[in-house]
Design goal:
Helix content is 33%, strand content 26%. With 373 residues, it is of the alpha+beta class. It has a domain of 252 residues: outer membrane lipoprotein receptor (LolB), chain A (Clam). The protein has an eleven-stranded antiparallel beta sheet with strand order 6-5-4-3-2-1-11-10-9-8-7.
């Protein structure tokens, strides 16, 4: 800026203004026109030195607002989908965590043979009554008793009913060589009775005597189930030796433990239902030897039967089906209507006169034991 001279000061020619840098305007050192006053010159220099403001463009603002509006609209449109996705992912994470923490406990260790046998005993001990249908298939080599005797194949169907405290009914029907023979053993609270073949029912002393013809002459294994049901201890393991688990298919679609061992000095296989612990099938492989000291302790009829069984070879398989338990049966349900056929009654006297005198004869031609058995 050029400061004008004070009033009264001598006039002098001002020096030429410095050439401004940048955008400032410069004045010529001489001109043919009249010289402007000092004030005008100062004002012109002031305005020439003041920068001129440029007008800002609104394009960026418009673009920014447009992008922001699009973002808001997209958020409003996609927000439910995003929330649902995140919610699903959260639920999946929660379920995965729950699945990891709520895994079912590992299965219990498999039962030992002793535990299985104990559960079998407890299952029969806890019943008020038991009923089942059975089929018995036998293939017996009798040459040890009767030299030259061919192998005998027998099929027997039976029904067994047991109740507390000493109710039972066993009825059977056996077919061999095209001939059918029936029999029954029962107790309905009035004593123990047995009848089979041509012989009418007769009273015997004990349940074992009533079951004896079924087991010794007809090879039924139902007495083993009765012993489990009526045993004081119901401890199958105490009466069985060296039972172990083995691999074998189930019975009638049942999932079973299969145990192999020895009972009554005979090789035995037992199929035990894994859910009920009831015996679904028994197989006895004959050929075991009975110690003489044990035979001496048995009644004569049972001793003879065991001695004869020790001379036989072959197998007996008895399968139980239609098992029913705890029906609270009355005593009358154990009465048996068994009676020998009329033709058998007509020939009873002749057959009694031809009774076989050996156990081998009894096995091939069943007869009533002495003493009303």
């Amino acid at each position: 800026m050029i400061v004008p001279a004070a009033p009264g000061a001598p006039q002098s020619t001002p020096p030429p203004p410095a050439v401004p840098s940048g955008n400032r305007l410069a004045t010529a050192t001489s001109t043919s026109h009249a010289q402007p006053s000092a004030g005008a010159t100062a004002a012109a220099a002031f305005y020439a030195a003041k920068p001129v403001k440029k007008k800002k463009s609104k394009t960026g603002l418009i673009v920014g607002l447009s992008v922001g509006a699009c973002a808001v609209a997209a958020g409003i449109y996609f927000w439910p989908t995003l929330m649902q996705k995140f919610k699903h992912e959260d639920q999946a994470a929660v379920l995965a965590e729950q699945a990891a923490t709520n895994q079912p406990p590992p299965p219990p260790p498999p039962l030992t043979t002793e535990e299985i046998l104990e559960k079998v005993g407890d299952a029969y001990k806890g019943m008020t009554d038991y009923a089942a249908k059975a089929r018995t298939d036998c293939s017996i080599d009798m040459s040890g008793l009767v030299p030259g005797k061919a192998t005998v194949n027998l099929t027997t169907t039976s029904s067994l009913q047991l109740g507390r405290t000493n109710y039972y009914r066993l009825e059977w029907e056996q077919t061999t060589s095209g001939k059918t023979t029936k029999g029954a053993a029962w107790s309905a609270g009035k004593g123990n009775y047995v009848g089979y073949g041509p012989y009418p029912p007769s009273k015997v002393k004990t349940r074992e005597d009533a079951f004896l013809p079924a087991s010794s002459a007809y090879f039924l294994l139902s007495d083993a189930i009765a012993q489990l049901f009526y045993s004081q201890t119901n401890d199958l393991a105490a009466e069985s030796k060296e039972f172990t688990k083995t691999n074998a298919p189930g019975v009638n679609g049942q999932d079973c433990y299969v145990l192999t061992g020895e009972a009554n000095h005979q090789s035995v296989l037992a199929w035990v239902n894994k859910n009920t612990f009831l015996i679904a099938q028994i197989q006895v492989n004959l050929g075991g030897t009975f110690p003489p000291e044990e035979l001496k302790k048995l009644p004569s009829a049972q001793r003879n039967a065991m001695m004869a069984m020790s001379k036989l070879k072959g197998s007996i398989t008895e399968t139980y089906d239609n098992i029913e338990t705890n029906r609270n049966l009355l005593a009358s349900a154990f009465e048996s209507p068994y009676q020998p056929s009329a033709s058998a009654n007509a020939n009873t006297q002749q057959m009694q006169s031809q009774r076989p005198t050996s156990m081998a004869g009894q096995l091939t031609n069943p007869r009533r034991q002495r003493g009303g058995q």
